[in-house]
Amino acid sequence: MMKITEALKARRSYYAINRELPVAIDRVMDMVKELTELVPDAFNMKSGRAAVVHGEKQDQLWNKIYDVFEGKVAREKIDSFRATSFDDLFEAVKAIPWADYIPEDGKFWVTKANSVSSKLFSPSDIQKIVKKAMVEKLKQTYHADWFEETGASYPLRISIVKDIVTLD
Predict the structure, then answer these.
(1) Which string of b and e fits 54-85 if b means at least 16 CB within 10 Å?
(2) Which of 8, 34, 78, 81 has the greatest number of C-beta atoms within 10 Å?
(3) Which contacts (CB < 8 Å, 24+ apart) does range 53-57 have?
(4) 3-state secondary structure (DSSP) of residue 167
(5) Pairwise CA distance, residues 150 & 122, whole Å
(6) Span 102-120, pLDDT tens digits
(7) Residue 157: Cβ within 10 Å count
(8) What is the rounded distance in angstroms from the CA atom of residue 92 to the CA atom of residue 90?
(9) What is the pTM assigned to this prediction?
């Protein structure tokens, strides 16, 4: 059995939290309910509470966390996500509410993509997938099949380090 000091020395923080759930939200809720019943509090009672936040409320929570930290935690630490396949990358980028940042006539492209020690390593493929995901999301939001891209410019850079994606 691992000693507590060994466990603490071996612990790591992973910034791979994102909006994609590998199971249905109902299953998450059931697991949280069960686990909060099993874990006793400081008085050896089962009075634990937990909050499960998903969807738009999750975005609101992360925005509030960023505000509370007053910029002491880099926004990319909060906004980054894990992608180990092009499907992961596409779905995570498509989940971003791009219309909040890019108007319907906005000109948008991926100016640069880089990858270090990651499963996704082809910059040109990364650029294509990210652009495609952005277009698909904007098509859904604006109910359009084509974008003229004649308005203001919205360049995007993407960095993937050890499978953690940061958009800038």
Answers:
(1) eeeeeeeebeeebeeeeeeeeeeeebbbbbee
(2) 81
(3) 54/19, 54/21, 54/25, 54/28, 55/19
(4) strand
(5) 29
(6) 999 999 999 999 999 999 9
(7) 14
(8) 6
(9) 0.61
